[in-house]
C-alpha cells in the first residue's frame, strides 16, 4: 500500500510538471516535455521509496541513489518513448498516453526497486 501511495504522489508531481510544460510553456515534442517532467517525479519517488516504502535508510544513500538513477533513467526513456509514439506519432491524447505509460513504468519500477535498488542484505545464519 505504501508503494502505491508513494507512486501516486510521485506520479502527481510528474503529471503536474508535464501539464505545465505542455500547457502554459508550450514545450514540444511531448516526448521531450515528458522526459524533463520525469526528473521531478523521479526525485519525489526516490525520497519516498527510501524512507517511506522500503525503509532502507540504513543502506548507503550514494549506492541507492546511483542504482535508482540508472533504473529511472531507463524507465524515463521507456516512458518518454511510449509518450512519443502515442502522442507525436499516433496523434493521441497525452493524458491517456500518460496513464498507459505510467502503468508500465509502475510495474517495472516496483520489480527492480524491490530486487535491486532497495534490497536489504539478507542476514546470514551462523553455525
Oligomer: single chain
Can you give the mean pLDDT?
89
% residues in beta strands:
under 5%
Unreliably modeled segments: 123-127
Q: Order of SSEs, N→C? A: HHHH
What is the structure about, briefly put?
By secondary structure, this protein is mostly helical. The chain is built from four helices and no strands.
Structural description of this entry:
Helix 3 (61-89) packs antiparallel against helix 4. This protein has 4 helices and no strands. The longest helix is centred in the middle third of the chain and has 29 residues, at 61-89. The N and C termini lie far apart (37 Å). The chain has one domain (2-117). Helices cover 77% and strands 0% of the residues.
Keywords:
disordered C terminus, 4 helices, mainly alpha, single chain, elongated, 127 residues, 0% strand
Task: Give the helix/strand layout.
Elements: H1 2-22, H2 30-53, H3 61-89, H4 94-117
Amino acid at each position: 500500500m505504501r508503494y502505491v501511495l508513494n507512486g501516486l504522489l510521485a506520479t502527481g508531481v510528474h503529471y503536474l510538471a508535464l501539464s505545465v510544460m505542455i500547457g502554459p510553456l508550450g514545450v514540444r515534442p511531448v516526448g521531450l516535455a515528458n522526459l524533463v517532467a520525469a526528473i521531478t517525479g523521479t526525485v519525489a519517488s526516490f525520497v519516498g521509496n527510501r524512507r517511506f516504502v522500503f525503509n532502507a535508510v540504513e543502506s548507503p544513500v550514494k549506492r541507492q541513489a546511483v542504482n535508482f538513477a540508472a533504473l529511472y533513467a531507463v524507465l524515463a526513456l521507456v516512458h518518454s518513448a511510449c509518450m512519443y509514439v502515442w502522442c507525436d506519432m499516433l496523434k493521441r491524447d497525452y493524458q491517456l498516453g500518460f496513464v498507459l505509460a505510467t502503468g508500465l513504468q509502475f510495474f517495472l519500477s516496483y520489480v527492480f526497486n524491490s530486487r535491486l535498488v532497495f534490497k536489504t542484505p539478507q542476514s546470514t545464519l551462523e553455525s
